[in-house]
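Support request from a user on the community tier.

User writes: "When I paste my structure tokens into the form, the page sometimes reloads and wipes my input. The last time it worked, I copied everything first. Here is what I submitted, just in case something in the input itself triggers the reload:"
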């Protein structure tokens, strides 16, 4: 006999077996998801997940990350702008060594340039060659 329905012990509803991730799973999908969300929030939500990511990817604790943010005054190490989002951990892709914290744009620019200083200099030279001349301020340089 093939199992076609079962009662979820959480919501107490008799549901078709396709409402479960697998036939042997304890609860239906919505209840399983609700349990997962509750566990995620109980552990600290996105802050906990970010702390885990920092530790796994860069060997940094959240305290070490926050100390770096403080040391940089909450600003990107390249453009010195304050980011509305968390600063990204910049690292050497060959050695894994953590460098500094960067805004999203500076971090992506370095990554797209493949961490190649020569490529970045060539990009800067290119932009300077093609820069639009700045127009003088109205009234500047005119004799009164």
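"...and here is what came back when it finally went through:"
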């Amino acid at each position: 006999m093939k199992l076609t329905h079962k009662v979820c012990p959480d919501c107490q509803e008799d549901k078709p077996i396709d409402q479960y991730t697998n036939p042997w799973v304890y609860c239906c999908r919505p209840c399983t998801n609700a349990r997962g969300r509750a566990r995620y929030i109980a552990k600290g939500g996105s802050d906990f997940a970010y702390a885990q990511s920092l530790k796994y990817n860069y060997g940094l604790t959240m305290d070490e990350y926050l100390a770096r943010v403080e040391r940089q005054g909450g600003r990107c190490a390249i453009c010195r702008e304050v980011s509305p989002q968390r600063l990204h951990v910049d690292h050497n892709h060959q050695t894994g060594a953590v460098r500094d914290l960067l805004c999203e744009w500076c971090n992506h620019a370095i990554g797209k340039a493949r961490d190649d200083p020569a490529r970045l200099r060539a990009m800067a030279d290119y932009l300077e060659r093609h820069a639009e001349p700045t127009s003088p301020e109205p009234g500047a340089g005119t004799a009164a």
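Agent notes: The reload is a front-end session timeout and is unrelated to the input. The radius of gyration is 26 Å. The beta strands are 5-7, 14-16, 88-91, 98-102. Escalated to web team.
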